[in-house]
Specification:
The structure is a homodimer. By secondary structure, the first copy, chain A, is an alpha/beta fold. In chain A, strand 5, helix 5 and strand 6 form a beta-alpha-beta unit.
Amino acid sequence: MILYGRNPVREALRGRRRVHRAWATERAARELWLTGIPVQRASAEEIAARCGSPAHQGVCAEAEGFPYVGEGDLLAREPRFLLVLDELQDPQNLGAICRSAEAAGVDGVAIAERRAAEITPAACKASAGAVEHLRIARVRNVADFVLAARERGLWAYGAALDAPRAYSEVDLSGGVLIVVGAEGRGLRPRVAGACDELVRIPMRGRVESLNASAAAAILLFAVPAP
Amino acid sequence: MILYGRNPVREALRGRRRVHRAWATERAARELWLTGIPVQRASAEEIAARCGSPAHQGVCAEAEGFPYVGEGDLLAREPRFLLVLDELQDPQNLGAICRSAEAAGVDGVAIAERRAAEITPAACKASAGAVEHLRIARVRNVADFVLAARERGLWAYGAALDAPRAYSEVDLSGGVLIVVGAEGRGLRPRVAGACDELVRIPMRGRVESLNASAAAAILLFAVPAP
């Protein structure tokens, strides 16, 4: 996988996966963090052609695929704070949400294995490299994963526009799983049904919903530090 | 200005500015909300060429420029909840933040008049049309605006990574102004200095900052309903 952009490449070098080599412009190659791997000089145009994006900031790198953890691994270490994303479609949204999740201190993120965005280079870029420090699992069945997490003692809160209680009225301390649905569609019924409770973010304006990334940030940061 | 996308065009029709006419594909033209203006059938390619974006969802419309309110107007109506954006650069971020601000129920948004993103069609799209229902002013001097708002009785909280107190430790009720800085740069010193207090969003991960849109959503929704 060809990662691109300063933060994504830097965090990959600080993270878990193998980074084989990088291509950098004269200017980007002088940055002090770009060490430990072979770096080849390249023009901005060559880098854009290699990574397929103009947003490379003068650097791209060849790395192994994203190091997902297993579904079981996510639950094995007694997590206290997990995020589940139900069929999110947009890699940019996925990346932005992962950035907020990492900053909020989640123990891991579960995403759907099928019909959902994956951790692509665009998602890595949107996360500012935060995905490199996150445990992310692709799960076969999102509803089953929610139920399995509940068996481990986590309380599962799903975001829903029409839920009777607001997130600020529930107790988010002591082990929670936040479940956020796809852009514009929300949670699938079986996933909503697998949660302990649905909560809404109170809307005080005329436009009826937040984007998935804003909703996730609000809920994740409402969870108190352990 | 050529607006594009279903939500932006629909909300513009529900909002304050004049919309002169629309172009829509056969399919989009059948949507019930697209009424009250002349609608011309067009192919997806023609619409893309007219609005300059592939993200038009089958509809674009010619509307007058965004109806900013005056700087004084924003303060004249005894606002209790304002958002100030200090030289935000990216129209997508500006739009996403405006969507969260509208949903959070702000009385208005102030953006810098120069060296800052404006309410472009891309910003309207990223806001899902929420800008049509927001009072937005372009202010000449952001720091002066913050001071003027404080004279009106608002308490100004600026977001800063290294602030001693967390936003959750301060009283956000009873009339506040939230001030958020540019992507990756934060508040300019004079703007930070104009605030009553700087607050941070506690970071619990390894990556050091949130994106401006997530930070704004978290702070805006931490403000209690009046």
